[in-house]
Amino acid sequence: MSIKHSLLALLAESPRYGYQLRGEFEERTGSTWPLNIGQVYTTLDRLERDALVEKEGDDGEGHVIYSITDAGRTEVMGWFAQPVAATNPPRNELAIKLALALTLADVNVSAVVQAQRTASMKLLQDYTRQRRAAATHAGTQLSGEPGTGNANDAAWLLVLDSLIFTTEAEVRWLDHCEGWMAKRAASAGTAAKPAQARATADTAVAK
Q1: Mean of pLDDT values over 173-197
Q2: φ, ψ for residue 190 (rounded to 5)?
Q3: Which of 39, 92, 117, 136 lies deepest, with the highest CB count within 10 Å?
Q4: CB atoms within 10 A of CB 107
């Protein structure tokens, strides 16, 4: 997640101080990815160093106000214009866990898959309930048709849709893993039968 560009996007709307930026970010994304305030101010320092934002003094209550510069506006508009690069996929703990489980003789891989599917299905149900409640609040239809809610409501609905689609994809992948392991086990059993037959024949000859 690009905190740098997220903060620039909010500052492109209007000048703000750190706590306002954190609050606006979390409100617009449904607090799905909470920001640490120290991280916000560290990022603002870097943005100021790179001449993408500048300080505008304070609000009279000790809060330093930041505003975006022309260079910062160009930077954030470029971010919106470019697709998100996926050349270096983020680490997927579940994929790593299953990959390692398959290489260890004392791990029940099927149990790992079943436990994860149960957790993923529960999460999917939670997201779906949240989506239904958010859609009702925003005055939209569950079909995804735009309603009369404000932009923040719409943003939260899109975030929930992303979480639902991602979780559905994870469940489908777990189903694929289970099916693949079943075929692998069946193939291993088929390959073992000729070997067992040969061993039996060799024993009979030896006798």
Answers
A1: 74
A2: -65, -40
A3: 117
A4: 14
